[in-house]
Design goal:
Order of helices and strands: HHHHHHHHH
Helix content: over 70%
Shape: elongated
Distance between the termini: 78 Å
CATH architecture of the largest domain: Orthogonal Bundle
Length: 210
């Protein structure tokens, strides 16, 4: 009985230790994300992150080998948030037309709040970091796949008239990204949602069956 109690006590201590480590690791990611977003990846140091969590740098190196590794964890976490929001928005709509609108509007509304994920996708100065390039390639493939699925659904339901799904998806994404910077610069305008809707309708011209 005593031996069992000791085993349970050790197990409880181990579980508590694992929990504390997980909490601290997440705290490092959260705080680092805010610092990266404020000062940028290049200007942020391990010392800044250590100061942010009020720990020594050695505590951070226990969990992460480098600043790049922390940035990777931050960006991947934001990428998951982004994907969850996009999928949720699409699944709430029934028509292919509304799914495309939901994708674009949700993307515009959330991308600016995920500063590190957006930076990883846009900042060419970070392309020398291996994971950034891999992430960008995976993101491009995922975005095209999602668009192709929606467009294909639209064709099958006789809502869209498209002869080349791959080309249409690529063209739509290119147009969307082209307008993104302009939209984000004016994101606080009172009629921003109407502007997004108007631009989406312009993009739709030629694929919506009339």
């Amino acid at each position: 009985m005593t031996a069992m109690r000791m085993t349970n006590h050790k197990l409880t201590n181990y579980q508590n230790s694992v929990t504390k480590k997980a909490i601290l690791k997440q705290e490092i990611i959260t705080v680092a994300g805010k610092i990266f977003d404020t000062f940028g990846f290049r200007k942020t140091t391990m010392g800044d992150i250590a100061d942010g969590i009020k720990k020594r740098k050695s505590s951070i190196y226990y969990y992460f080998k480098s600043k790049e590794e922390i940035f990777q964890s931050v960006v991947l976490q934001e990428a998951k948030e982004f994907r969850r929001a996009i999928i949720k928005a699409i699944e709430q709509e029934k028509s292919p037309h509304n799914k495309l609108k939901a994708y674009v509007v949700t993307r515009m509304n959330i991308i600016d709040s995920l500063g590190n994920f957006n930076t990883a996708l846009q900042d060419k100065r970070l392309m020398h970091i291996d994971f950034v390039m891999r992430l960008k390639n995976l993101y491009d493939e995922e975005e095209i796949r999602l668009f192709k699925n929606i467009l294909l659904e639209g064709v099958e339901k006789n809502a869209f008239q498209i002869y080349d799904i791959e080309l249409a998806a690529t063209s739509f994404i290119t147009a969307m990204r082209g307008m993104e910077s302009t939209i984000l610069q004016n994101k606080d305008a009172p009629d921003i949602d109407k502007q997004i809707e108007a631009i989406i309708d312009i993009i739709f011209y030629g694929i919506v069956k009339r």
